């Protein structure tokens, strides 16, 4: 990587989503390109730093160059693994296999998150992303007019039913304690742009027939995750992937749950409320 010192080369992955940055970790840690990276996040949604090989301290340091760092519950790094000795929250992480936006149970969601690959799955395990700005922009104007004033009730119950569709009453009550959150279907950002707010926490649209509500939410999810708006990142050990949590959805693709796939996550505090 020494030959890359000081270089910062950007390649688009697809016309509407994704960029690969070719550089070295020293350049990233310097913060020299932090403003450019933040600008790219809204435009590209997902930025891949191929095989940059951050250790945990470096990942935290780089994350801090981009905004206000948010520690995890038990330290700076969240170790994503299905091994409960490494990650006691492994069962909760199963929700990551379904399209979602982090923080839909809060009024101010995370600005961005970053994953680094420590151990890849032997098969599967890609992370998929879709650009919800681009998905909104491409809708016909008449449909935009019908959608932009709708609200959606979000709940942990809705998300967890994907993982465990027949919970016990005790487990359902546990999920329900987090309550619900009333959010716009269309997020009008302070930048003037708009994006769709979708994902597995979507429960129902108030005032709409339940079946029609579910049908609309599924149709929009299918629309937003079309090929032109989405990408699937195939991990290599050492990759770091940063995404705009306010303008994308993401999910993990299936992989053997007994394998030793390990990702380390860091987060940036939200800067804008849903509106």
Structural class: alpha+beta
Radius of gyration: 19 Å
Strand fraction: 25-35%
Outline the biggest β-sheet: 8 strands, mixed
Low-confidence stretches: none
CATH class descriptor of the largest domain:
Alpha Beta
Euclidean distance between termini CA atoms: 43 Å
Shape: globular
- Strand segment count: 16
CATH superfamily of the largest domain: Clavaminate synthase-like
State the helix count.
9
Notable characteristics:
275 residues; alpha+beta; Double-stranded beta-helix; 2 domains; eight-stranded mixed beta sheet; 9 helices; 27% strand; globular
Task: Give an account of the 3D structure.
- The chain has helices at about 25-30, 35-45, 55-65, 90-95, 130-135, 140-145, 155-165, 170-175, 210-225, and strands at about 10-15, 15-20, 45-50, 70, 80, 110-120, 125-130, 150-155, 180-185, 185-190, 195, 200-205, 230-235, 240-245, 250, 260-270.
- It is α+β, with helices and mostly antiparallel strands and about 280 residues long.
- It has two domains: about 1-130 and about 235-270, 4-Layer Sandwich (Double-stranded beta-helix), CATH 3.60.130; about 140-225, no CATH class.
- The strands form four sheets. Strands 1, 2, 3, 4, 5, 6, 14 and 16 form an eight-stranded mixed beta sheet that branches.
- β10 (about 185-190) and β11 (about 195) form a beta hairpin.
